Amino acid sequence: MTLVEEPATQAPEREIGKARRRKEDARLITGRTTWTDNLVLPGMLHLAIVRSPVAHAKITGIDVSAAQQAPGVLAVFTGRDFAEEQGSIPCAWPVTPDMVNPGHPSVAVEEVNHVGEAVAVIVARSKAAAQDAVELVDVDYDLLPPVLDMEEAVGHQPALCHDHVESNESFRFVFDAGEAGTGADTEQAFAEADVVVSRRFVQQRLIPAFMEPRATVVQPQGDNYTMWSSTQVPHILRLMLAMITGTPEHKLRVIAPDVGGGFGGKLQVTPEEVITLLVAKRMGKPVKWTETRSESLMSAHHGRDQIQYIDIASDREGNVKGLRCRILSDMGAYLRLVSPGIPILGAFMYVGIYKFPAYRFDCQGIFTNKTPTDAYRGAGRPEATFAVERIMDELALELGMDPLELRRKNWIKAEEFPFTTAAGLEYDSGDYDAATQQALQLIGFEELREEQRRRRESGDPVQLGIGFSTFTEMCGLAPSRVLGSLAYGAGGWEHASIRMLPTGKVEVVTGSTPHGQGHETAWSQLVADELGVPFEDVEVLHGDTSIASRGLDTYGSRSLVVGGAAVVNAAQKVVAKARTVAAHLLEANPDDLEFSGGSFSVRGTPGTGISIQELALATFAAHNFPEGVEPSLDADATFDPVNFSYPHGTHICATEVDTETGMVKIRKYACVDDVGKIVNPLIVEGQVHGGLAQGIGQALYEEAVYDADGNLTTGTFVDYLVPSAADLPHFDTGNTVHEAPGNPIGAKGVGEAGAIASTPAVVNSVLDAVRHLGVSDIRMPLTPERVWRAIHQGGDGADRATAVTTAQGVDAAATPLAGDETPGGAL
Amino acid sequence: MTAINVRVDGASYSDDVEPRTLLVHYLREQLGKVGTVVGCDTSNCGACTVHLDGEAVKSCTVFAVQADGCEVTTIEGIGTDGRLHPMQKAFHELHGLQCGYCTPGMIMASIDLLRDNPNPSEDEVREGIEGNLCRCTGYQNIVRAVQQAASEMNGSAAAPEALGAQS
Prior knowledge:
The structure holds two protein chains of two kinds.
Chain A: H1 25-29, E1 45-51, E2 57-63, H2 65-68, E3 73-78, H3 79-82, E4 111-112, E5 118-124, H4 127-134, E6 138-143, H5 150-153, E7 169-176, H6 177-180, H7 186-192, E8 195-206, E9 215-221, E10 224-229, H8 234-245, E11 252-255, H9 271-283, E12 287-290, H10 293-299, E13 303-314, E14 320-332, H11 341-347, E15 358-367, H12 381-399, H13 403-410, E16 419-420, E17 426-427, H14 432-443, H15 445-458, E18 462-472, H16 480-485, E19 494-500, E20 506-510, H17 519-531, E21 538-541, H18 559-586, E22 593-596, E23 599-602, E24 610-611, H19 612-621, E25 633-639, E26 648-658, E27 664-674, H20 681-700, E28 731-735, H21 753-770, H22 784-792, H23 800-809
Parallel strand pairs in A: 1-12, 10-11, 14-15, 20-21, 27-28
Antiparallel strand pairs in A: 1-5, 2-4, 2-6, 3-5, 7-15, 8-13, 9-10, 9-12, 13-14, 16-17, 18-26, 19-20, 19-25, 22-23, 23-24, 26-27
Helix pairs in contact in A: 11-12, 12-21, 17-18, 18-19, 20-21
Chain B: E1 2-8, E2 11-17, H1 23-30, E3 49-52, E4 55-58, E5 71-73, H2 86-93, H3 103-116, H4 122-128, H5 140-154
Parallel strand pairs in B: 1-5
Antiparallel strand pairs in B: 1-2, 3-4, 3-5
Helix pairs in contact in B: 2-5
């Protein structure tokens, strides 16, 4: 069933709240879409990239002569050819003043640091010719030992990932609530606690796996360059490309046409984008690069990949006293655009929805010879939410309490908002009880518990488990001053323009660039309500830096909360200007005018008014115009949020676990999310479904696996298991609505909720099914083999090395952060 | 180069192709039929699904020369903006797409599924489209869309639950 609450306060004629079918669909369902790879330009050349087959090596020689002579090949470039102008792939989030950045050439010059790194570029008349010639480039590698394990990387006498930096540690970031003045002293809280529970969790490496492979086309026109790219961030991309390649910013136009998914994976300035621009400059002709899926899985950035040591302190009654988190975060071989910032975003979310008096977070960013990591749906918050929602279950078990009772005892009550957490964030609104009650009803909780009891008592080979995740996250990234305090390289504002055309139609320009989220529809709904014009009369323009001249793009569930807010503010400015003109034409005082249904009329004399469409024409002609007012009916607005927004919710998963095969099947999944005001219930529900699929994918199916030499063994969709329709259950979704006070819409953001909340709900559920068989943890993804081993071999289902460190990790009070030379450490 | 004759979306083409050319590359690069897209190299994702003599195939697993003498239908041949195929209409009405990259292949596979099973249950739809990957929708609305299209095309399938969508 579907439960989408229509807020009761909405009048039926309003667009906001309507399940509008999407404007975007028309082109997408008929195959008339403008994917970057569809572009064909006269004289266009094609690129193929020669990639490293080894994880770590010095390049001692590259012979390109055979490739140069291959049919159709026009040029072959190596890193040395670009050394002067390729700059370094930018990292815009230096999280600590002493963060080490080894630099990241687009094409390797002296050494390669991960499998899949670019070492040479073929330019040919056809894509096939370029790909054929890749095989003809002969690269001599002097192999170096690959650094593949994070804990070894910062252990005793490790091999170095980069020989020109002193260690494999990029940064160490500490947040201590006691020191920050946002909470009590953590060590004291732990010393005085009755119970301390410690666990080591592994956030396995994931791959965003957007469906559209990345593609980039660059067209030179004199000293101007137009780039089309399958990117989430055309504005950031333009700025960064200008800075690193020396291309004047005003000579560079970036267009993100239809973009086939991103999930953070296209929040990037990629080596390939830099390469395509450099080659187009060299060749003076349009150049296209499109990746294969294998290239995508190997060299587009990965996500997650953290090891978490989590300690929770409590009294015997289950009142939590403190939380201590030590995190190892794998950066991969290089820092990409926001790589270091991902665990730091998470730093403020480990306390979840709970009133922890004390909190300490300590994170190391570590280099390994693997593909760089960066943003992936939720970016830091899924890792944090997993840790706190798993450790709450472990604490409940230790205390002999019901997991939900423990949560309820510790979460922030509805009447306590706004509430400042030990991590220093001010949660603005919500009601965790209300969402939980609704979720319990949706899933039929009592019946499931009864069935679970029956199966357990009868020794049924298929056991049933029920797992919870009660969560919040921070969306609407973010107040610029806060991003500044976290050393992020840009602000958190978003820009919008609204132009009323002479015929009364409306163009909306948004700086927030979508890749499947339905901005064209939702923004049209916002503007239709604000201006009182038909939904169909609004056109939303985006994704072209020469049209949407300012913007900070789409990530972190910021689009509606920040970008939509800018649209609303711009629309209100348009109405204010229209009011001035209307007052002039109606010979009335502006304050005496009412604006309703798209028309201004003098208060008390309805039917005598003038419509906003008529005013659009009047301001275009400007024949009879108030003094001091500029012709044209348009306005710009830039919205900088005052706070993050805090969606929350309760997710409940019921799984069947076949104890004889280890197979996990999701029997039922119900979630109730509070995403604030809902502009389009259809889009909200779709975003939740998609997030759930990715979060369940992490719990049960997905992992990027490297072998002992650093080869990605999950380099195709044969091995990297993106769940199919047959793998996923039906979702029962619902909403509660507590509007966000921090933006004019009251929206909180929805894109990441499902991915954040579902992973711990699924894992808690599987453990709930098999705990009575002696299983206390299973490493993700919960494959049948791991689940079977956990049940039948008494381990945690992890590989041997992980099992050993897990055993040590249980005594976490004695487990230092990797790299501390304390006996009994993680190594 | 090998000469082939194919009918694509109702038009006849005579072309020379390299024997190694995949059908999807022939469609996209030689005929400009860019509605059909490439998502993987391994025939796992189904984004390139078209109909070959009425049967759904992943056009990255078929050489263009194998289509010689055949009838090919792509997403561009089943409906237009003004006159959508019931499957296209259902995907739109039930929000069975987000980024839309998998959508042409998903629609083509779903039409073929209904040819074999005009009245599929939810589980049958899920199994029937498991060769087509989608990363955005979580599949639920796709399943509902296929069932609604079945209902409309055959008048026999159980209607999916109402979503309350408004156009």
